[in-house]
Every structure is written in structure tokens, then in C-alpha cells.
Fold these 2 entries.
Entry 1:
Amino acid sequence: MTLYPGTTLTFVIMEIMESENSNKMAKLQMKIGGMSCSFCVSTITHAYSKQKGVMDVNVSLSHEEALVKYDPSVVSDDELKGVLKNLGYTIRDPKKVKAFEEQKAELRLAKKYLLTTSVLALGAFTMMLLMWTGFTFAAFKWFLLTLALATMLGPGGHIKKKAWYALKRGILNQHNLLEFGAFAGLAGGITGFFVSSFPIADFLVVSVFITSYHILSEYVSLIVRTRASQAIERLLDLQPKTATVVENGRETTRNVEELKIGDIVRVRPGERIPADGRIVRGYSTIDESIVTGESLPVEKSPGNEVVGGSINMFGSFDISVTRTGKDSFLSQIVRHVEEARALKPSILIIVDRVLKYFVPGVLITSAGAFLFWSLGSYLLFDTWDIDRAIFAMLAVLVMGYPCALGMAMPLALISGGGKAAERGILLRSGEAFQLFPGIKKMILDKTGTITKGDLEITDLISYVLDKTKLDKTELISLAASAEVLSEHPIARAIVRYAVSSGESYTKPERFKVLPGNGIKAIIEGHSIIAGNLSFLNKEGIGITEEMFATAEDLAEKGKTVIGVAKEKKLFGIIGISDSIKDDARETIEALKRYGITPVMITGDNRKTASSVAARVGITEYYAEVLPEEKAGKIRELQAEGNRVAMVGDGINDAPALMQADVGIAIGTGTDIAIESSDIIITGRSLKSVIESFEIAKGSYRKTKQNLLLAFLFNGIGIPAAATGLLNPSWAMAAMVASVSVVLLNSFLPSFKKS
């Protein structure tokens, strides 16, 4: 699993100069396209660790990003980019849409290389069979040599470049091992031109097959990443990218990135606020939950600040842009994401843990075989068996190429990822497969994750009016009649409840909204006022201490209290709160059964947090947590030795999603939350978290099975090759058999719940 020619790096370059220990330090952030395994991480990290002026480097495989801290007086950012170019990478367009387009082009190119190598491999294999049957002539060996060189230098040429640059820096990885095996086959075949004991066809064909299988593993790995990226692209396309700017009374559309401080931007109902600003005209109710975590919409009027990323619920208003660029709320969140990325615990996935020792093991065994049959043979038997020594050395290198090992995780990922995709779950990396089964604590954001983010009626309390105890149905009917013309989320919740309950309501003759307080209406000649009790009290509505106590009790439970008055008398009280997802409690209980401790985190007040946590069965929670503090809470849990997952959907969740060992984004969330995550749930069901855990656990089990099966072939074949008696054709047969077994095992149905 490596990269192919044209594989590029997306550089989202963000140079931030800051003072640290009285010295100037710069940060270079790079988004790397096409990373396929932990060897890519170790290769890049190792290369930068040898670069003068580099203080620290953090590379994330799952998010394909690197953050380099360096001294600009010693090394420039161009030199740092040059390090990556020398490793065989190039620069990709930093724009997301362009990046996805280039990734698709890369997949097409990889497919072209795979088809080319398949044709070359088929031709080489056919010639080998003909030579085995005795149907041959002198030119056959030259044809085979041509096919081997065409494969290695054509579609396989990029692998040599990566192997060479890695080797120059003293880095051993799977690229090196591939080329050692491929050149061993080539060397063995060329030797056969002069030494009859070396089978020309066997060695040359194995050289072709090693390169072909490596390109196949590249293609398989790329399919996994491209499929997730294409799904992410569809999600990101739902996010607005433009703003309506008002200039000289005329509206023009402008890209959000082009906004300047002082620009007047018009925001209509249902639109997302494109930038931080201050309202200069109009008023509305704004849903800031995606930014602050608060579930209840906030009333805004001229002079109030608004935050980019919030949603305008109703009413049209104009804002004057107050912050852009690095000073904006979103840019601050990005900086917190960078910090979380830099501090996120690294993980070497299981495949690469095996390869870390397997690669040098093969090289040592190969050298040992040569020494034993040359110098050892001379010391023991007083004869130099050079032919056998060379044959054994080459055979070990040929047999040592771990094609099936390299495909163990991508195949399990494709199998498990396909099952997950059927359920609306996108698994973005092998790290998520490996880490998820070991999670000990799962942090769940409240708004939009545990709750629906929609308000619902929870309490209806009616009072005696004119010596008559009113029915609750009359209360909701009157409240719905008063609120039916309002677009406020609370009003919509009341009307929705009346409709679902089958209660009738009428439109008011007159209606007036008082932002931040409530409404006044005339219904069938009667004066109706609805709003918070403080507002009703100021309007001269008689409210007893008992009524205030009831309202306070509801507020203690995290509910919003609305009073409904008729002709200056309190008709009743309505309790409203954000509704809990239907599957929330079931999901929490399932987490506990798996030994995972659920922890709720929210920016809401403690009363609301305590109420929601109790309703879903969570005993551990954090309330009134700022966006930048969420990642810090996760770091605290990780420092205690916990492996932590995070589930969220808002902009304010992005740093925490990045910091967590496994970040899980609800797919209806923001693009930055999606980009910061390892797993994406495209729907709103919380139960999908459990399904993704079960699939990841099953896929990880498949990966371990695949590794065991693959290692059996290599583990038996390498010692056999070291004897100098193993024909190279057996290496090719072992490759075909091992890949076939791993492929079959990957797609056998065994994803059982445990």
C-alpha cells in the first residue's frame, strides 16, 4: 500500500509566527493527499527529524496531515516542501473541490497502471508456462526481460523513486523491500543468461508479479480512501460558500473568503451566517448550537454580535462584518484543531507494526543465507558454494515481499467499509478500525448528538380561571392560536404539538412579536399574551409565588418556561426542552455493555446538562465547556491512560474530534467537524455509533486473521528459500495463493456482534 505517480500533497500552508522560549518559531501545516500506511508517517517523520532547523513534526495518517514546527532563521518553508518533493510527493491544489477532483484523477491513473501491469503480467506468465512445457526459442528470454523491465520502469517506476529517496535517508520501508525483491528477480533472471542453474523465466516473471501485486495493493488502498472522500465531498457540497453583500442598496453575491471588515451582508431566513459581525438592521432568532452548543435559539436585534456558522431561524437582517481571516471565530477554531492535531496520540497500525520488524528481518535473513552458503560453506565443508549462496539470497528477497501482508488491512477495510456504508457509516482509515475496539471512554456532545436539536413540549400546567379549572387541551389550543403566525422555534414547537394532539386552533385577528420576551395577540376579541414569566409580570399579569416556584422547578430541569395569559390572568404554564433522540438511552446502555464509559460534554448550563444526562443514563458529564476546552478535557482523559472516542457535529466539536483517538462526526454537521473525524455517520441516528463499533471490531478481527494467514505463507516460504533449494516460481505461487486466501477470508460473512 503505497502511492503512485502523480500522488500529490495538498498543502494548506498556514504560517504562524509566535514567540516560544524567547525564540522565533514558525509552523507549516500541510494536508497530504494519498497517504496509505504508517510507513508513510514514519518516512516523513524520519526525514524531517534529520532536517536542520526542524524542532518538531507531527503526522496524522487518518487525516493525512502534517504539522512541522521549525526555526525560520535556519530553514525555509520552501526547503521543507522540498523534503517532501524529494520523497516523491508533489503539491496538490489546496481547495477542497480541486483536491477531490485530483484524487479522482489519481484513481483513474492508478487503474490505468493496474491494467497495464495486468497485461504485462499475463504476457510474462504465458511465456513462462510455454518455457516450462518446452515450447520455447532463443528470443523468449529476451521477451521476458523486456516485459520485466517494462513493468519495473513503467508503471512501477514511481515506487523506485520513493524507495531510493527513503534509502538515501536511511529509512527502511515496504518500498525498499519491494525493490529488493523485484531487483533480486531481475538479477536472478539475468544471471540465468550465463549460469544454467538459475531459472530465467521463474526469476523474471516473479519480478513482474511482485511489482504488479504492489500496484494492485496501491489501487485497493486508494479505492478505500477515495470512496470515503467522495462521500465527504457530497456532504461538504451541502454547505454554503457565498454571501449576499449589500452595496449602495444593491445585492451582489461574493465568496465568503472575499469578505472584508465593514462589508454589509444580508442574511435571510434559513441561511447560515457567513461571517462574524454585528446586526445593523432587522432582528431574528438565531440557532447558535452548531457554534456554542446551546440548544435554545437566541434572540438577536440591532447591536447584537453574531457568529459565522450560526443559522438564521427567521426574519431577515443585515450585519456589518467585524472579523475576518485569522481573527474570526472559525479561524480560532482552526487553530484549536491544529493544536489538537499536534497533541493527538500517534498510533502505529497493526499491519505496519508487523512490517516494522518484517522488513529488516527479511534483509537479515537474505544476507544470512548468502553468508551461510558462501563463507559458512567454506568453513564447514571447505568449499565455496557461490551459486547456491546467490540463489538463496535472491530467493529470500523474492519470497520476502509481503504482498498479502500489505493487502490484509485494505481488503478488510473494503469489506467492513462496504457493510458500514450500507448503514450510512463511512470509515475513513485503518486507524479507526484498530483503535475503536479498544475505546474505554466515549465523549458525546449533547446538542445534535444526544438530543435532536428540536424543541418539544414536555409539561402542560393549567390554572383556575374565573373559578374554573381549565383543561390542558384548552391551554395548548389557545397557545397554538396565539403562536401560529410566529416563526420562532418555541412557537413552532407549540403548534406542532397541537397538530400532533389533534387540537384545533385559530389565527389571531392581531399579532405582535416582542423580541426576547414573547408575543401579544387578539383572539376572538380576547387579549392573549405568551412569553417568559418576567415579561408577563411586567405586563401586569397576576403570578403567585406558587406559579413562580413551579416555573423555577421546570427551569431546574433544564426546560424553557412559557406562560400563557388571557385577559391579564395566567391561563397556564408550558415547559419546553430539546428532545432526546429516540435511540439515545438504548445506545448509552449498549456502550456500557461493551465496557465503554459514556461521558456527555456540552456548552449548556449545568441544569440542562444534568437533566439530559439523567434522562439517558449518563452519570459522568461536563457542562458549560467552551469549544477550546473540549479538546483539553479529552487530553486529560487520555493522560489518565484512557483511549477516547468523541461524537459530535458542530464547529465547536472539531478540535475535540481531532484530539480524540477516534473522532465520530454526525454527517449532518459542519464541514470542519466532518474533516476532523475518522468516522462519519451520514444520518442522525445515534445507534449508528454502536453499529460502527461492531463493524470496526469485526473488521479488525478480519485484519488480524488476514495477517496470520499471510504471515504463514511468508513465515514458511522465507526459511525454505534460505536453503537455496526453493525455485522462484514457488514464490510467485505463494503470492497468488496468499492473496487469494486473504481476499476470500476478507469477504466471508463473520461480522458478528460480541
Entry 2:
Amino acid sequence: MPKVLVSELVLRDGHQSLIATRMRTEDMLPICPKLDSIGFWSLEAWGGATFDACVRFLKEDPWERLAKLRRALPNSRIQMLIRGQNLLGYRHYSDDLVRAFVSKAANNGVDVFRIFDAMNDMRNLRVSIEAVKQVGKHAEGAISYTTSPVHDIPHFVGLAQEMEAMGCDTIAIKDMAGLLTPQGTTDLVSALRAAVSLPIHLHSHATSGLAAMSFLKGVEAGAIMLDTCNSAFGEGASHPSTESIVAALRGTEHDTGLDLAAIQGVTAYFREVRRKYWQFESDFTGVDSRVLVNQVPGGMISNLSHQLKEQGALDKMDAVLSEIPRVREDLGYPPLVTPTSQIVGTQAVLNVLTGARYKSITNEVKNYLMGHYGRAPGQVSEKIRHLAIGNSEIITCRPADLLEDEMGKLRIECENLALSEEDVLTYAMFPDLAQTFLQERNAGTLKAEPLLSKETAAPSASRYAPNEFKVTLHGETFHIKLTGSGHPGEVQRPFYVSVDGISEEVVVETLSEVEVSGGNSGGKKKAVAAASAGSRPRPSHEGCVTTAMPGTVVEVKVKAGDTVNAGDGVLVIEAMKMENEIQAARSGIVLAVHVKKGDSVTPDETLIEIQ
């Protein structure tokens, strides 16, 4: 039997799974020489959510990250994760854009492209695979593994055979939620080995506690490639630790040949690095057998936890995890992996936070139900489909067949911002985010979200500060509950509070700040702040349009004086990276619009008034 080849995931999926994709390039580069010398088959370092996180939070150019990593890893294959026709965004892109992106990624340093489609719709993989082969790089087709009444071994074998026919070099079983069992892995790998001639690559998350056992059984059944993550960012919602797998196979016919001591040297470095990102640590990074039911992938659980925490709704996590399988069934059992994991997860959050299932439906769910992401694996609930899209036409062709070439138009749209073709591609992935990013980069004003220090941020601020209390002012007592806040470190920071059950936004402006350290002070800070209440009126009648969760206005569809019908879309809000169209609750004339594109909004504010 050949030795087992190992792909190390610490530079991408490991920190995506445990600290919401927040590791910065400056913390990757110092350890690259050691990583480069170990002999991994590949180092996954790009793609997935890293592109989004670079632009949205870290204010780094993702292309610059790739170029720096390429120079720092001269002897290693750099691997990236690409979502087929979705590339790195959340919609389908035109074929010319897919080809341009793959070409630039290859030119900038990507050697191995792992290509998957969230729906396992093979039509959505063809152009990406062709593009990778055209630039002479390694194309790895990935089966999005899941369990449901419509997913079985013959189904997965059929997918692998299609990938082989398309020209893939290897086949990955992409178990993004950790659902593989030891026996299930044996059965699937054995069936694939009998049906295709390509090497089998196993990818699983350790969330359910089964991944390491499944890897061993998979290797015994004939898989020769494994994804692992350095233990500093391994296990739990991440992956089986590299050290453990290397040690388990040592001395067997499957020995990886990797130096355990050298890997442990890398571990020591990343353990220190992880301390810097304590503020992004999730409460859901250990073993959690509930994943066998809710199927939330490792890369999503830490982000979901962080987003709910920012909205002051972390106490709703269990309800959201229970709702996710119900939404997934309604949508025909799609595998939960980007973007379908976000589509299902965000809709589940809305169902929980609004207190009524499908009271508010995201644009992405509507597009999904119209076929814009591809074929659903199972039967979609016709009741939900009609509620969401009525009698809208459902497409049956490959979604990208409906798209015209985009690159020419995109170059024109961002010609005053883009300094390179890579900039155009960044803009293509996330137009609004990229516009702000490129403007700030060109002006030299990029500023990453702050990394808080445990010593100077005061433990009391994060662990012991009250979030629900009573305030007595001029003889009146108010019950106040903090429900969310903007990013710490900003001069002006919004806090979302509930005062006697009514939501308010309070903007706190720091005027001066005194840090007390040493002795028994515990590093406490004292701040003098000025606050002003939000200026939007509270909802008082059915014609007041509100949002279900805090978000950002991305489109205002009406103006004062317009006539609207009940159910018409009047606003589009982005929340949790998904767009949610807000509809008019009743017919009438628009009296006032209290928001504009780019505004931050919170629940129980009147955004638009309809008479």
C-alpha cells in the first residue's frame, strides 16, 4: 500500500473553523519556512471564507496574501477551496469571470484547486474544472458529503464518475460537518475505489468526535490522502490533529513519513498565535454530537456563534440549531456547505428571531427556490416555495447559462478604483465591500478591526460587565438590556439596547480614556462618554417597516410618495452576509423613508412609513 499523503489546513480551514477566519497574514508568514520543510502533500492556504474575511474584517488584500505565501512556501503546493460557479462569493458568476479568476489564482500561486458545488450539481463544476486544466494545475473534484433520505452511496459514486469524466486528478470526500462514521467511510471509500481510478482524498471535521476513527477506516479501505490540521487549531469544529494522525499511522504500511517533532515545533508557534485571537473564540468548538442531526459545518459554527453574539442573541443558538434541519428539509435537503449553509442558517436565524417561520425570507432563499443555485437534491416544500416566490418561473437549465459575460462590465464599473485585474476580481466577488476596501486602500486609510488584549481590555469588560440592569434617573426606573454593539475600539460605537422592552440605538462617543494598571486594579478602564439616542421613530402601526435583525441597508427600493402594495419589496438589508428583502406589510402611500444605502439598522426602528 502507498504511504498516506497529508494536506495541512492550519492556514485556512483550521482558523476558519475555530476563530471565524480571523488569522492575519502577518501571523502566517513567520512559520512558513518550517511548514514548507515538513513535506506535506499540500498546504491549504486560500479560498473558502478567507477572501471575504480579508476584505471585510482584516482589511488585507487577499491577492497580496496569496503572493506573500507563494514566496514564503517555495517548495509546497498551495491549495485553495473554490465553490465551482460560485467561486468565492455567494452567487453564480459568468463563465468568463470563472476562467479569469482561476487563471489569476494560478498565476499568483495556487497549485491545487479543490472544486465543489453546494448542491452537488455537476453542471456547476464543469467550467471551473476546465479552467484549472487549461492552466496546467491540479483539479480536485469534491463530493459535498451529507446524509438525508435522498443521499446514498450510489448517488455519491455517480458524482465521482462524472468528476473523473470531466478530467479531475483526484476525488475528495468533503465531509464539512463531520458526519462520516467509521463504517460509512469504509463503505463509501470502497465503493469509490471500485468505480473510479483516481486517488481518494478524505476531508472531515472533528465536531462529532468520529473523524479520526473514520480516517483510519478510510485509509484501510484505500484512501491515500488525508486533510488534517495542526493541533493548535485542530479538533472540535476543526479537523483531526496532524500530530495524532501522523503518530497513529507511524510504523504501519500507511506511514506518512512526516517528522512528528518538526510538526510539534509548528504547534508551539501557533499556540501562541491563537492567544491573540481570543475575542473570536467560539463557545461551540468542542465535540458536539448534535451535528449529526443539525449538520452545521465546522466553518459555519464559529461564525454563527460570533454573529449571534454580536446581535445579543447567543442564547438563541440551541433554537437555531434545532431549526436548521427543518429549513433544510423544506429546501429539499441541500448539503450544508457555503453558500447553502449560509442560506439555510440565516433563514433559520430569521425564523427564530422573528418568532414566526418564514415571516421574513431572504433573497437567497428565493433565488434558491427559483433554481438559481442549481437542482435541489430532494423535493422542495411547495408550500414554502409558493410563500417565497409565488408563481415565479423556476429555471431548469445550468444557472450560469443565463448569465452574460461580466468581466468587461466589471472593469468599467471599478475603473476608478482598480489598479489591477486582481482588483477587478475582488470587486466581482463582493462589489459593495470591495468598493469600500479599494477606496480605503487607495487613500491609505485601511484599518483592520482591533485585536483586543486580555490585559488591557480588562477581563471584567468581556466576562463580568452587566448586560441587563435597571437604571434610576430623576426618580424613574428603567429596565435596560444590552442586545448588541458595534466593533470595540471605534471612537463612535453604536450600542443596541432594550429599554422597558423597546429597542433603541445609543451611539457612544469616547471623549477621553484612562487606563489603570498594576496592583489589584485588574486593568480596568474608565471612560467618559457622550450618548445620543437613535433618531428613527419607533414602530407604532402596521405601516411601519422594520427589520428582524441588525444589519446594513444595501438597497432602498421606494421613495416618499410612491404607492406600494402589501408584499412589495421596499428595502434590502444585509445581515449575516445574506440579503433580506423587507416587504410592505400593507398597501398604501409611502409617507417617509428614514434610511439610505449603507445605514446600520436595528430591530424595532421604523425604517419606512406607509399610510
